[in-house]
Automatic annotation (TrEMBL):
The keyword Zinc-finger does not apply. Keywords: Isomerase, Magnesium, Metal-binding, Phosphoprotein. This is Phosphomannomutase/phosphoglucomutase. CDD domains: PMM_PGM. Residues 376-450 form the Alpha-D-phosphohexomutase C-terminal domain. It comes from Streptomyces bambusae. Transmembrane segments: none annotated. NCBIfam families: PRK09542.1. Residues 8-136, 157-256, 266-371 form the Alpha-D-phosphohexomutase alpha/beta/alpha domain. Belongs to the phosphohexose mutase family.
Length: 454
């Protein structure tokens, strides 16, 4: 019987429960389909610390090698380390991870040579069709000459490349607490930080795909409580929290307060513009703070606003030649990193900025954090379109109110804006509000939620 992959092939990646929704037999077919669609004669494969990752990635490699393709296995790595391997070797790549999902999940993030993304519109739907067909008919005949499977360690090269992009050698000594959440940050941070003027306080660095301490998703406030407490207890200069595959990084200041990813986007944008002679394009999605385009313009750059989602950001990065891009979700994209996202490089920029002056992190980021934000508020609704239309109707005709529908509905005035977006996968509407002061924020937030939840 043909496998139904509709539940596990998402917009940007493959993700599902192992072995209930997919297993090594399907992983092998994914390997064969990936090389068929990309036309590759060599690929690179890495995996995270989940119990099922070695077996799944090995099966994928077998499927690719059977088609005559040479496979380089880089073993345990972060997702941005896989992007480094894909970029530096100029090979298509596959990363086995389910990011912050629970232990029973696993998935594949795929890219073409040079870390170019593979999503539904750029090959993933064709890969799905092949795997579904072959799961019923059987895999295609193997190549006359199978490909080779070799192993290579890329961790040192990855760390060295990052450190060529940010100079940390002359910063003042900093004490930094890092919560790896038992994810891949525990593997990459020690090598990246080695020899730098940093006193590292590690938390949950033991690689454990069952996530025994907390979910490895630092955007959920409950998952950074331990880090916040440790930063204050240690009197540290800052804290860093990585997600399970260590491609996202969340920052905590010396008071134990979370620093918004919009403020980090603005800070890194200013530094990247300075590195590029005070000129360049910076991408930001439409629910980052007003602060981001303001800071970009103040530093000589051109801000470009996009939809939410890494495929849109990477598309705009490539199309505009942008030097940097940031999202509210703590994904940070760099031209000098093949337009791919790397939380580690953003973290190094924060360390360099903080260590290059004498003040605290909270003082440093205050100039980049100018407004009050609600964060993302989800509401379960039966009819997303009807509730969105009701919200639009309520503000239609009001003086000074503008609308746009780049991604969901954005309503703005001189003093506030909000965006209301439907979830693609659940019956939810996601609300983000920003205003010039807390009272205005509360008023607008409560007005919109009353309409959404009516």
């Amino acid at each position: 019987m043909a496998a139904d992959l509709s539940n596990i092939v998402k917009a940007y990646d493959v993700r599902g429960v192992v072995p209930d929704e997919w297993d090594e037999r399907l992983a092998e077919l994914f390997g064969a389909a990936f090389v068929e669609v990309t036309g590759a004669d060599a690929i690179v494969v890495g995996h995270d610390m989940r119990p099922s990752s070695p077996g799944l990635s090995g099966a994928f490699a077998r499927g690719a090698a059977a088609r005559g393709v040479d496979v380089t296995l880089i073993g345990l790595c972060s997702t941005d380390q896989l992007y480094y391997a894909s970029g530096s070797m100029d090979l298509p790549g596959a990363m086995f991870t389910a990011s912050h999902n629970p232990a029973q999940y696993n998935g594949i993030k795929l890219c073409r040579a040079g870390a170019a993304p593979v999503g539904q519109d750029t090959g993933l739907s064709q890969i799905r069709e092949l795997v579904e067909r072959w799961s019923e008919e059987g895999a295609p005949a193997p190549a006359a000459t199978p490909g080779t499977v070799t192993e290579q360690d890329t961790l040192a090269g990855y760390a060295q490349h990052l450190r060529t992009l940010v100079d940390l050698t002359s910063i003042r000594p900093l004490k930094v607490v890092v919560d790896a959440g038992n994810g891949m940050g525990g593997h990459t941070v020690p090598t990246v930080f080695e020899g730098l003027p940093l006193e590292l306080v590690p938390m949950y660095f033991e690689l454990d795909g069952t996530f025994p301490n907390h979910e490895a998703n630092p955007l959920d406030p409950k998952n950074i409580v331990d880090l916040q407490a440790r930063v204050k207890a240690e009197g540290a200069d800052l804290g860093l929290a990585f997600d399970g595959d260590a491609d996202r990084c969340f920052v905590v200041d010396e008071r134990g307060e979370g620093v918004s990813p919009s403020a980090i986007t603005a800070l890194v944008a200013a530094r990247e513009l300075a590195r590029n002679g005070g000129t360049g394009t910076v991408i930001h999605n439409l629910i980052t703070s007003w602060s981001v385009p303001e800071v970009v313009r103040e530093n000589g750059g051109t801000p470009v606003r996009t939809r939410v989602g890494h495929s849109f950001i990477k598309q705009e990065m490539a199309g505009t030649g942008a030097i940097f891009g940031g999202e509210h979700s703590a994904h940070y994209y760099f031209k000098d990193f093949w337009n791919a996202d790397t939380g580690m490089l953003a973290a190094l920029h924060v360390l360099a900025a903080l260590g290059g002056q004498e003040g605290t992190l909270s003082a440093l980021v205050s100039s980049y954090d100018r407004y009050v934000g609600s964060g993302e508020i989800n509401s379960t609704v039966a009819d997303q379109a009807a509730r969105t239309a009701a919200v639009r109707a309520a503000y239609q005709g009001q003086e000074g109110v503008t609308f746009d529908e780049l991604d969901g509905l954005t309503v703005a005035t001189a003093d506030w804006w909000f965006n209301l977006r439907p979830s693609n996968t659940e019956p939810l509407l996601r609300l983000n509000v920003e205003a010039r002061d807390a009272a205005t924020l509360a008023k607008v937030r409560d007005e919109v939620l009353a309409l959404v939840r009516a």
